[in-house]
Amino acid sequence: MTMKNIVYSLAQRYQSICTVLKHADGIAALALRCYLVPIFWMAGTNKFMHFQNTVEWFGNSDWGLALPFPYLMATLATSTELAGAILLALGLFTRLISIPLIITMFVAIVTVHLPNGWQAIADPNAPFANTQVLASTEKLEKAREILENYGNYEWLTSSGSFVILNNGIEFAVTYLIMLIALMVLGGGRYFSLDYFIKSKL
């Protein structure tokens, strides 16, 4: 068999695999949606249940975000997250709802997380560790010392090590990238109302 025939045979097999996988391309969009639904639902319901606190946090310049029109901004953020969770769960208007969710994530990145650097959880050994993360090492050691002396340390750490939250942009950027992917992919084949509506129309 010549090299040309081998290449042609491999290309045919690759094309056959792609044809089969085409029917499963909705799984990727479904996985992204299922991952994001509880995140936005929890964020939205938390804002809704403590709405007045959310408004104050959005508007306060001393300990909050100092955003203009805090009541409007809190309403938009809360409704976007709740509606986003519901629509992503159904796979309905997926590309459309991804846009305000992307804006919400971008605002969160710039106003809340960016001053803390990249890491969501402080780990001085990880890449992009800033001075805030490095300073957390001393706090973590002190907390560990207190727990070892005054608590049941083995029981407290049986599910994993203690960590210090750094609240950097890491998670928010991850969600932003996932939403951008959904804006391109849509709700996904077979697993979304978007697909069935489109097939009927």
From TrEMBL:
The chain crosses the membrane at residues 20-43, 63-89, 96-114, 172-191. It is a multi-pass membrane protein. The keyword Transmembrane applies. GO terms for cellular component: plasma membrane. Its main location: membrane. It is found in: Cell membrane. InterPro entries: DoxX (IPR032808), DoxX-like_oxidoreductase (IPR051907). The keyword Membrane applies. Keywords: Cell membrane, Membrane, Transmembrane, Transmembrane helix. It holds the Pfam family DoxX. Belongs to the DoxX family. This is DoxX family protein.
